[in-house]
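Sat 14:20. Reprocessing the chain from the morning session after the first attempt stalled halfway. Input below, unchanged.
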Amino acid sequence: MTQLDTKSLFLSNTPAMEQAIPMATRRIGSWEVRISRHPLSTTDLTRRYDAMSGRWERTARRFQLTAAYQQPLMISQIAKGLTQVGPKPRILDCGIGNGSLSIALHGILENQVDYHGIDTSADMIVQASTMMRHAGLRPQLQQADVLSLPYDDQSFDVVMAAHVLEHLSAPKRALKEMIRVLKPGGMIFVCMTRPSIFGGFVQLKWRTWAITEQQGIAWLQDCDLADIGCQPVHFTSCAGTASTAFWARRTTLPDAQ
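Finished this time. Tokens:
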């Protein structure tokens, strides 16, 4: 396969051309055996999250997601940057789930913020609305796909996503779509499952990527982002440090897609 063919395979969004997610590699002498799985389709992911939406609040409490996200959010200096933006900066949370990431950010901000969020699961949007309003937020939520965000270019001061990109056959394509709606100077913040014992369980169950720090940083560099940083995310219970938070700043217009 040529370099051009590989790029086409990565960017294509058709089921027949999905990039398989690597699960395991083993070398035996001169042989190298690789095991890969095709990711769940958007429709299948939506159905799964619709089915588990009623239990997701319990999952969020078990792993204390809001508290886990706050530490890397503080280290990223997103809150400090938002104080310099002006009145009521705009935040977009992609794959918002039950709103844990937005609630975590809200807990460390001093200024008022205009929260927006999308999710492919309508039932998860209901969960997010309930949880976020209980936390004092008044978000604008809608059902949508991170690969095709229903917003104009350069619409938001911060765009973020927790455990979304690793579900996709083309995570860099989704990352570039997130950057499209981010203002120059704005910050992007993403959490992704990392290689670990618990991360391996998540990978087997959900057919996700397991993203190393080097790989995540390389993705952000490929998107021409600056001030890149990362930090392990510490969850409670058996999850441990199953994820890594990455952040970066947009300084230029993204390359044409």
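The longest helix spans residues 42-63.
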